[in-house]
């Protein structure tokens, strides 16, 4: 796969987790569930520690829990690579569910496909289980709001 | 838009709500939030009563809350039109977020594009606010498990 | 479905067809195949006159012919509603194929879900046959390049 | 990324090209343009030799040419891994266009995310240029028709 070797993260996983906890209070009570575990040039790894509350009929992790993991993967990419502007928003997300996932750690390997001035496109491989099978795959787009220049705030 | 006038629901909105409450306990504690408000031939209307817990940074309803509404719209369609088999699963969902939505009632107008033996394809217009603007639009696919034949249960 | 009643087209179907023929020479030799047949506030109707060349194994219209119709539907919407700037480009397109379509006229009913300054989101119902069944449904996004102001060109 | 190391192709790239040429006559006159260049366990590489006819306004390769490459990537995967049943059809394809591509060879690196009995899900990285940048990325689903048993044909 093509690499985006020119990209450089500005924040670590720990810094992104602290930032999300601060700007996103509604995520707080779920915060031991969703977290960034790595940030690297051109991507990140995020984790859902899936428990009972994330299950749906059939005993598998719900689509909306996996959607949230995919969305957080993109959010961590945009926060870490485009700067900590919490107001970036998802404009599109497409997700395919390919296998059932049971409760336990579920990892999202997220890759930036394009980082432009106003849009970031990413994909994410969501894997689970002892064999690391893909359980879902998503692609999405974040809209990046124009940055307020420091001068203009002076 | 083309109509699927040959489709006929087998369950009412109240029956679907009761069924979801029974088979989907994890949704129970959110149950005053997501509900079916209408089921009609070829589609349904679902509602999210969005409160503080559904908001994200910027004070708007989170993508994952709207994803869940879209997914539930498809689930209500498949339960009501293909029969109350709770094990149907989403295989694909694509969602576009086009406007910010504030807390309050958010309605999803859901339409079956195809109901086959093993797949159901739907789309959903998610509207909010006094002017009923589209805030998101999604299309998705549910996989319908093979029905157990009556003989084999004898 | 929610209407975008505030939108007003700037070009007619005939004007859009003439514009596409002029800026898009590669489409020329296919031009009796793809055409705009109506432009109205918030949307348009486009048509593919599908012949032998548009078929795939099984004798049905190929996915790429229907993709092209969906893409042209969005293009006609952006040209007619955002202005005749031929350099708008598709950034995302998601298409579901739900029924086989045979050779003959295939109509795409296209609706603008959002017209912003830099993005237009649309969906399109593609219908065919004597009963007007949906054969495919797509949603997509066009990126609209910043308009050059008239002053800056003086 | 997770590997599907248990998958094993039944056909080589040359065999798939010969098969496509035979079952898909409409592709024939474009056949030096689209071709399989490799088939390996769990995926394939396909190439578009993009020329003048594949360009759109702005001098870049058209979205529909890239869509066709993505679709052929999935088709080669399904033909080579699920067996040479030409009647498999695309049910969903989602494509993001992230950079302009100029005329020249454009490669699609295609990976099977899931190969089930009735569905195959794949993604494809489409790269071009001397630096091998991603120009588009797609995910899609092929429906695999039930195989006719040999007995029933006797």
From TrEMBL, chains A, B, C, D:
GO molecular function term, any single one: acyl-CoA hydrolase activity
Keyword Hydrolase: yes
Short name of one Pfam family: 4HBT
Coiled coil: none
InterPro entries with a match to the protein in the record: HotDog_dom_sf (IPR029069), PAAI_dom (IPR003736), Thioestr_dom (IPR006683)
Thioesterase domain mapped to chain residues: 58-131
CDD domains tied to this protein: PaaI_thioesterase (cd03443)
Swiss-Prot/TrEMBL keywords: Hydrolase
Name of the featured protein: Thioesterase
Species whose genome carries this gene: Mesorhizobium wenxiniae
